[in-house]
């Protein structure tokens, strides 16, 4: 199909520059260009250019171009005529064309040449649309993911060649799309950068002439082309009887799985537990690399032919996918059982086809929304599930998601009812033998009928189950945001240039409703303000005060401190709920009238109706939060189990007060969850503290179930895989010298490593370390990522996995909660022992509650939590028998404090005590 662009010459350009601000004296230091004819690279150019200024260190680190490389080269005056000749009569292409073309034109115009007026194409936008499920669209990542070979990433000539091959792949990808999809993409593409739409419209117009039939793998509903649905995988169902003996297991495992004594012992213990009607719960600590997931799947699988399901809850969606895509297929290959499995997650993770198609006709969207719509159109030709997680997005904050996330209702009679992703998912879940969900979803939906009758339950990574249940129950009432919703609604109804009041002056019923709604909405704002003032007035009862870096005042309260017996808040909250219902109801009536009026009004009111609908949805959301809070305050026992945090964005202004509530004791909800399931197995690599399960039994509220306890053995010699180094001559952790020592270790000692994790406990210290090391020449080959500074935690994890060499500086969830897929980590640095920051509201409130009950907080809560987190941090290194790595402890308190023994005891290999000077060699030798 190369004939589509047979007459076109593409000039794919990449520039390396001394910086991004051309008006401030930054200049080009390398011009790279690859010429494409007939969709083949026929020629490349590379010019090193003297910028007549120093190249900044950050640019040297990125490009590898040093000052001496350009000092003796000709300057841009010499190359300008050559560049103009090369680009004449070509289509200008760049990866981020709005940087390269304006920069090049600026340099040309500064020397008296006319600006280039070539047709200009951007491969960033095209790549996002053509390959919607890729995790990154940086050029170096795209060339790696699409297996495009170019020798010197971040050099202009090599990057230009890589971008040229990328463009060719993009064009071929578009040529494979169904015509209906191309037609819709073409109609949307006018909003793309410069002339980028020309690529899509040219392909769509050319292929329309060929009238290709729809491929057999597709179905078309209206103008949307979808991948045909397929059933869950299953095995062959040969032998449904559990293999009791080693010989039977060896026969099954042969050629598919190594027979490992420790793993088989784990399987046997789980099998005995499942078949013991006297036992309901079991705690299993299985070291990393044991194959614990396969073990519990194998033990439970043979019990699933009685019509009972196995429910597996993991802490993260990444682990969910790993169980579904890797572990269960392995179970079926080994066992030859004919079981089916599916993922269970919130309806909001699925695309609502009706809602999505509606957004395609809502006028001109902003650029991110347009790109996302076009990505989804292409993705629909690929996905069999409609699961939005397949798009590899790092957040769901774009306004489009409010319209396209499935609300969870059963679709009947809608345009896409027969192919509705959520309905089809529920059907698969109903039929499945194994359901894999996450901790948070289970905590909020444990009574769902989808689990079936008397189901089995496995809690994977059980050490964090309680905290995940708690965080899933935490919530807030953001009064400032609600105030903003009401103000925006009033603007739509009364004050904007195209307000409802100004457009419908002659509609008697509508104006009657508007006059009635006006004072009601103002009164609602006054009640909100009253609630804020009443909360603000309680600041003296706070158990903790923190001024956050962004200026927000954070006040933590026990329930009885914020809502005492004489609290006026409950009464005002009742008025708030009533008034909010009135405003919502009246706004709904206004919307109903507007839909009737729409047909007789000439002006287009679609956008207005959509915005008012959004505000009603927001009012519904805040109404629900109000009722949740009222329920919480009505139950004295419930109130005592919760903590409250006021977030005051302007400490001097009561009207900037917002309310969060936190669950402090999950005992009741945990026991309710357990009562719904049978033979519950709690499994993790880190469940014990001080060589016993006492802490986790208390945390998981398992005392009444008297769980069986089992500690598995490792399936390999850990000493051959894990090296633990403890630096003995570090300064005090509270000194500036300590931070400087960490900086120097990271700068000077990591050259031999690929992926390094630096675990800290304080976000401010993360910032300081990041600033100290980010532009150092010694680390120029590393992508340096820092929590709170390099995007969301999910984005950081994604970048870490993709990069050839990377360092993460993180705290909190990076000790245990963030997944790095199959990325091998060479070294983990524990900068500090992982004690929780006591200034965090949830920590202080939980500790205060324990203190009130006469419990020794440090020994019964703080230390066990830190020990388990420490073990999790160490477990980052060795996930299986192929992994090797070094765990480096920098905190000298390991040796100087009594509690250091608690950490030393759980390290499974001999510790090497070394000096700072010895560390570099030790890291290099491994």
UniProtKB/TrEMBL annotation:
<dbReference type="Pfam" id="PF00270">
    <property type="entry name" value="DEAD"/>
</dbReference>
<dbReference type="InterPro" id="IPR006310">
    <property type="entry name" value="DinG"/>
</dbReference>
<keyword id="KW-0378">Hydrolase</keyword>
<feature type="binding site">
    <location>
        <begin position="286"/>
        <end position="293"/>
    </location>
    <ligand>
        <name>ATP</name>
    </ligand>
</feature>
<dbReference type="InterPro" id="IPR013520">
    <property type="entry name" value="Ribonucl_H"/>
</dbReference>
<comment type="function">
    <text>3'-5' exonuclease.</text>
</comment>
<keyword id="KW-0347">Helicase</keyword>
<keyword id="KW-0547">Nucleotide-binding</keyword>
<dbReference type="InterPro" id="IPR014001">
    <property type="entry name" value="Helicase_ATP-bd"/>
</dbReference>
<dbReference type="GO" id="GO:0004386">
    <property type="term" value="F:helicase activity"/>
</dbReference>
<dbReference type="InterPro" id="IPR036397">
    <property type="entry name" value="RNaseH_sf"/>
</dbReference>
<dbReference type="Pfam" id="PF13307">
    <property type="entry name" value="Helicase_C_2"/>
</dbReference>
<comment type="similarity">
    <text>Belongs to the helicase family. DinG subfamily. Type 2 sub-subfamily.</text>
</comment>
<dbReference type="Pfam" id="PF00929">
    <property type="entry name" value="RNase_T"/>
</dbReference>
<protein>
    <recommendedName>
        <fullName>3'-5' exonuclease DinG</fullName>
        <ecNumber>3.1.-.-</ecNumber>
    </recommendedName>
</protein>
<keyword id="KW-0067">ATP-binding</keyword>
<keyword id="KW-0540">Nuclease</keyword>
<feature type="domain" description="Helicase ATP-binding">
    <location>
        <begin position="249"/>
        <end position="524"/>
    </location>
</feature>
<feature type="short sequence motif" description="DEAH box">
    <location>
        <begin position="460"/>
        <end position="463"/>
    </location>
</feature>
<dbReference type="InterPro" id="IPR006054">
    <property type="entry name" value="DnaQ"/>
</dbReference>
<keyword id="KW-0269">Exonuclease</keyword>
<dbReference type="InterPro" id="IPR006555">
    <property type="entry name" value="ATP-dep_Helicase_C"/>
</dbReference>
<dbReference type="InterPro" id="IPR014013">
    <property type="entry name" value="Helic_SF1/SF2_ATP-bd_DinG/Rad3"/>
</dbReference>
<dbReference type="InterPro" id="IPR027417">
    <property type="entry name" value="P-loop_NTPase"/>
</dbReference>
<dbReference type="InterPro" id="IPR012337">
    <property type="entry name" value="RNaseH-like_sf"/>
</dbReference>
<dbReference type="InterPro" id="IPR011545">
    <property type="entry name" value="DEAD/DEAH_box_helicase_dom"/>
</dbReference>
